[in-house]
Amino acid sequence: MSNLVKKILALFALIGAELIMLGGIAFVCIFLFLLMAKLVFLDQNQTFDMAAFAFAKKQTSPAVTAFMQFVTFFASKDFLIYGSLTLAFIFFFIKKHRWYAVKIPVIAAGSSLLNQVLKFWFDRPRPETAFYEQSGFSFPSGHAMIGGAFYGLFIYLVWTNVKSVLWRWVFTLLLCFWIILIGYSRVYLNVHYASDVLAGWSAGLIFLIIALLVLRKFEPAYARKATEVMQEDTTEENNSRKDV
């Protein structure tokens, strides 16, 4: 019985802290998504959205507009297709990280597909003041959702592969800034409401967390690591018995 308890504790040490952190993030994201949905569809309150548009309007200039159009491209469908396939191709030839060749396109395609489902479900028209014509519905923002899932995956990769704590935080802050900038570009260009963006980030992170947990079940490296922990625990117990 004690052996079983030790094995369970060993596995918890391996995945417990990470699961608690991911669970906490998922809880916050679910709450935020539901809050935005309530604000938009039940309360029909546009105060937050109009305030965000007013703020963005004060920053408007030809140079800023050109920059925002450049930023927004990096969460577009065209970039998502070619970018994810290129990264998958690169990771395929790195034996240690070959499994990422599966994770990246699956998460990129999955987040895009889920976004389309959610848009048709909520059926919110886009703002009439858009800088350029954009097809499809508005809630949640596809760019923000892809930003949360696709670039959120890179934050996960940083924390699971970069040993230096300093560089972990540097890369994480840069990626977070990039995700926020992509979301803001959608509001600046008036192709999405701010509530669309917040809902998109939330949905993207929720999808990312679920996808990572599901894909992990099929990940050979993770399975080996869990097995090694179990074997080490058993070996230590056998050695202690021999000493006695």
From TrEMBL:
Query: Locate the Phosphatidic acid phosphatase type 2/haloperoxidase domain: which residues?
Result: 102-212
- Please list which residues make up the signal peptide: none
Highest taxon listed in the record's lineage: Bacteria
Its source organism is Adhaeribacter rhizoryzae
Keywords, A to Z? Membrane, Transmembrane, Transmembrane helix
Transmembrane regions = 12-37, 67-93, 100-122, 142-159, 166-185, 197-215
State the name under which the record lists this protein: Phosphatase PAP2 family protein
Q: Which SUPFAM superfamilies match?
A: Acid phosphatase/Vanadium-dependent haloperoxidase (SSF48317)
The record's listing under InterPro entries reads: PAP2/HPO, PAP2/HPO_sf
The family database entries (Pfam families) matched by this protein are listed as:
PAP2
